[in-house]
Design brief:
Helix content: 10-25%
CATH architecture of the largest domain: 3-Layer(aba) Sandwich
Protein name: Elongation factor 1 alpha-like protein
Subunit structure: Component of the Dom34-Hbs1 complex, also named Pelota-HBS1L complex, composed of dom34 and hbs1.
Strand content: 25-35%
Shape: globular
Largest sheet: 6 strands, mixed
Number of helices: 9
Pfam family, one: GTP-eEF1A_C
Distance between the termini: 38 Å
GO cellular component, one term: Dom34-Hbs1 complex
Radius of gyration: 22 Å
Subcellular location: Cytoplasm
Length: about 450
């Protein structure tokens, strides 16, 4: 039975006023900064990961000589991730703080898995940037070949404004206050240059492996002699949920597709984050690209069956009346009456990062949009512009240099479901990559 959308909006508003408000949180940072260990320990201390599950992970990890990865195994669940000791795909879980309900997205740190990291960051409202405080660890992650800088730039480019910098492994430097200050002083100007508002960035010293300053700051703990700020959980609990485009047409980019295995979840399972509008059980949705439609048989959120979901929710929709090969990663679920349009030509305002090769007319690129990776070409460099005033500085530049803001025309080799940011900001953000490096990010101004 379909629940009326007016009733859904009414129920959602009541829930937001009276209960914990939901936030999607992505955890990023250089490989080996301790992201999965930090979040695995946090899940255990908050009760999301049971003692029984953690003990099982301790025994299994110790058996293959990786006992120090026990907390990370709460999120790194695949056999390959556990054998290699690195996060490969985006792991998802949930946890509660006194005032917030978090959907946790643990993104891979290795440069080989940046596309997966982009997919995770595109679903986030806020981010935790995990920095390794150990001697050499910070320098490696924050250096030219490290992923700390690229991850920070990418999450900001994908719309994340609230950032928590968790300076991890403080136990490895004997909780040295000067080391913490050194790291903050190095990271702070870079984040400002990357577009973060300093008032929306918080720095927290932690020792994930030993549980220091994660849930509570102990009065007589090793940080007590100089740190008087909040614990990581206390900072997370103060994050502000962004406004949601509830009244917009449904838009749900698909991040995973699978076959449902139970009576309730029979049919095609399509996971993703609702970035506009809402949907409820019984609704008919269209899958774009394509002309096919399906009926929502069931909805699942945070491991529980729910009757409806709204913008900002990470969900799985079980679809009936459609074949599995019709729904793909990168497809968008939308109303049959208001489908997202397919575009082949995009006018995009981009910020150029630090590309190794020049960006010129004719340059082949990869355009990342949510979980889609679309082959494209830079077909026109319209102008460079002043990022503060929007004033045109130069028309038809020959090349785009690093740090430049510009308007460009991009042609996709195959049509993609993309909308201008003025219509739906989450559907209008793109990342440009070339030869394994992120070269620019931008917002879509026009689609044709």
């Amino acid at each position: 039975m379909t629940v009326s959308h007016e009733r859904v909006i009414e129920e959602w508003r009541k829930r937001e006023e009276s209960g914990r408000r939901g936030i999607s949180l992505v955890v990023v940072g250089h490989v080996d900064a301790g992201k999965s260990t930090l979040m695995g320990r946090l899940l255990h201390e908050l009760g999301t990961l049971s003692d029984k599950e953690h003990t099982s992970n301790e025994r299994a990890s110790a058996k293959i000589g990786k006992g120090s990865f026990a907390y990370a195994w709460a999120l790194d669940s695949s056999e390959e991730e556990r054998e290699r000791g690195v996060t490969i795909d985006v792991a998802q879980d949930t946890f509660l703080t006194p005032n917030r309900r978090f959907t946790l997205l643990d993104a891979p740190g290795h440069r080989d898995f940046i596309p997966n990291m982009i997919s995770g960051a595109a679903q986030a409202d806020a981010a935790v940037l995990v920095v390794d405080a150990s001697k050499g660890g910070f320098e490696s992650g924050f250096g030219e070949r490290g992923q700390t800088r690229e991850h920070a730039i990418l999450v900001r480019s994908l719309g994340v404004q609230q950032l928590v910098v968790a300076v991890n492994k403080m136990d490895a430097v004997d909780y040295d206050e000067e080391r913490f200050k050194f790291i903050v002083d190095a990271v702070k100007p870079f984040l400002a240059q990357s577009g973060f508002d300093a008032t929306k960035v918080t720095y927290v010293p932690v020792g994930a492996a030993v549980g220091e300053n994660l849930v509570e700051r102990t009065a007589d703990g090793p940080l007590a002699s100089w740190y008087t700020g909040p614990s990581l959980v206390a900072v997370l609990d103060e994050l502000a949920p962004p406004s949601r485009q509830i009244d917009a047409p449904l838009r749900m980019p698909v991040t995973n597709v699978f076959r449902g295995q139970t009576a309730i979840s029979a049919g095609v399972g399509a996971s993703g984050r609702v970035v506009g509008g809402l949907l409820s059980v019984g609704d008919r949705v269209r899958i774009v690209p394509g002309d096919e439609s399906a009926v929502i048989r069931a909805l699942e959120q945070d491991g529980e069956t729910v009757p409806w979901a709204v913008a900002g929710s990470a969900i799985t929709a079980y679809l009936s009346g459609i074949e599995m090969n019709i729904v793909n990663i990168g497809s968008v679920l939308c109303p049959p009456s208001a489908p997202v349009q397919l575009a082949t030509s995009l006018l995009v305002r981009v910020l150029v990062f630090e590309p190794s090769l020049p960006l010129m007319v004719g340059t082949p690129i990869e355009l990342f949009h949510h979980s889609s990776n679309l082959s494209a070409v830079l077909t026109e460099l319209v102008s460079t512009i002043d990022p503060k005033t929007g004033e045109v500085l130069k028309r038809k530049p020959r090349v785009l240099s690093r740090g430049v803001t510009a308007t460009v025309r991009i042609t996709l080799q195959a049509p993609g479901p993309i909308e201008p940011a003025s219509v739906n900001k989450d559907m209008g953000r793109v990342i440009l990559r070339m030869r394994g490096e992120s070269v620019a990010a931008g917002v879509v101004l026009e689609c044709n």
